[in-house]
Design brief:
It is found in: Cytoplasm. Monomer. It is an enzyme of class 2 (transferase). Its EC number is 2.7.4.3. The protein is of the alpha/beta class. It has one domain: 3-Layer(aba) Sandwich (Rossmann fold). It is built from eight helices and seven strands. The strands form two sheets. The protein has a five-stranded parallel sheet, sandwiched between helices. A two-stranded antiparallel sheet has the order 5-6. A hairpin with a 6-residue loop joins strand 5 and strand 6. Helix 6 packs across helix 7. The chain is globular, with a radius of gyration of 17 Å. The two termini are 23 Å apart.
Length: 226
């Protein structure tokens, strides 16, 4: 199962990627996480990425494409993957088709108002990168601490309401060609992500099974959905 998750900020890409990863034991590949790790390590790639980030510029397609290509060649992606944060341009989408088969692109559709509220309550584990929310599911079992490693959860600075509204607008301006590309190739699945995780995930999973995309058996008996 090779799928891509796209959606405006707050749509739940990280949350659904975690659920699928944990239940079916296929990697959640987040280009943002990979690039941040390279910057933190001070690698040659990280220094290149940092030079663009510090100037407020987008990392060039050729660099991001090479990063994703290397990651998809790793053994743990042999049975499938969940891509989050890639592709972000039409050229990246076409490059992804050249490097591997993409079974479906799931567009998590969310309203601007729900996105703003959801992101204002989002918290992230700095150790394992799991995503929680203090207003919505999945909520941490202990007050703002990760269920898995007990780390203190943090809030991203770009989750302020005005920033979220701008990011929401930019997303749909930027992703219109990508959404159209996958729609024309019959691989786009649109899901109403305004609802709770408990409502959305079973419907999403059923759609993937019905369309013959999800053929894997769960590698674990249970997966936390909120």
């Amino acid at each position: 199962m090779r799928i891509v998750l796209i959606g405006a900020p707050g749509a739940g890409k990280g949350t659904y990627a975690q659920i699928i990863r944990d239940k079916y034991c296929i990697p959640h590949i987040s280009t943002g996480d990979i690039l941040r790790e390279e910057i933190a390590k001070g690698s040659e790639l990280g220094l290149k990425v940092k030079s663009y980030v510090e100037r407020g510029l987008l990392v060039p397609d050729e660099i991001v494409i090479e990063v994703v290509k290397r990651r998809l060649e790793q053994p743990d992606a042999a049975n499938g993957f969940v891509l989050d944060g890639f592709p972000r341009t039409l050229e990246q989408a076409k490059a992804l088709d050249r490097m591997t088969r993409v079974d479906a692109v799931i567009h998590l559709v969310i309203s601007e108002e729900v996105a703003v509220k959801r992101l204002s309550g989002r918290r992230i584990c700095p150790v394992c990168n799991r995503v929680y929310n203090i207003y919505y599911e999945p909520k941490p079992r202990e007050d703002e601490k990760c269920d898995y490693d007990g780390a203190q959860l943090v809030r991203r600075p770009d989750d302020e309401p005005d920033v979220v509204r701008n990011r929401y607008k930019v997303f749909y301006e930027t992703f219109a060609p990508i959404i159209d590309y996958y729609k024309k190739t019959g691989r786009l699945i649109e899901v109403d992500s305004n609802r709770s995780v408990r409502e959305v995930y079973p419907a999403l999973e059923e759609t993937l099974r019905r369309d013959g995309i999800l053929k894997l058996k769960p590698c674990r008996e249970e997966s936390r959905t909120g």
